[in-house]
Amino acid sequence: MLRHGLLTQEQVPVSHKGIAMPLTFQEAQTVITGAHERAAKLAAPVTVAVVDEGGHLQALGRMNGAPPLSAQVAEVKAASVALFRRDGAVLRTMQETSPAFFAQLHGAVRVPILVGAGAMLIVRGDTVLGALAVSGGTVPGQDDECAEAALAALAP
User: Fold this and answer.
1) Cα–chain-centroid distance for residue 150?
2) Which residue in 11, 117, 135, 144 is deepest, having the highest Cβ count within 10 Å?
3) Rounded to whole angstroms, how far apart are CA atoms 87 and 107?
């Protein structure tokens, strides 16, 4: 008989009804598709990362031709936005006004923090559902434009 903590296997609940991710997998895919559609119009192969409210990767989509490093960059940018609960542009301002604080973060937290364009919170009402980030744009503004299109695709 297997035991989980103090419960036997027969006592471990098997139903997960009522447990839901704040942002569904389908919604995460919609976000990625929205960004990829805009990127295709811009001829900018990008990677889009979607993370949950805790900064954990939920979905990642890398277009053909997107730089390999863009997958890691997008994930870290999205996680940073989710953990700070602030869009990338706001984080950039914070970094510029408090460089000493941001310089110390790498030694104080267990996850990398990366501030950059194309990173936005995904919010429903007053609730942060997660974040998205785009990486790989070839000219300034493309990551932001694709991220805005991603959020627009999720809007009702």
Assistant:
1) 11
2) 135
3) 23
Q: Contact, 103 vs 77, CB < 8 A?
A: no
| Sign of the dihedral through C-alpha 125, 148, 48, 106 | negative
β-bridge pairing 57-62 and 47-52:
antiparallel
- Domain residue extents for the chain: 22-154
Show Cβ contacts of residue 45 under 8 Å, excluding neighbours closer than 6 positions.
39, 63, 64, 65, 66, 67, 136
Q: Two tokens at 8?
A: 């036997």
For residue range 23-67, what is the model confidence (pLDDT) as tens digits? 899 999 999 999 999 999 999 999 999 999 999 999 999 999 999
- Which pair of structure tokens corresponds to residue 5? 């903590």
Cα(137)–Cα(134) distance, integer angstroms: 8
Does 22-154 carry CATH code 3.30.450.150?
yes
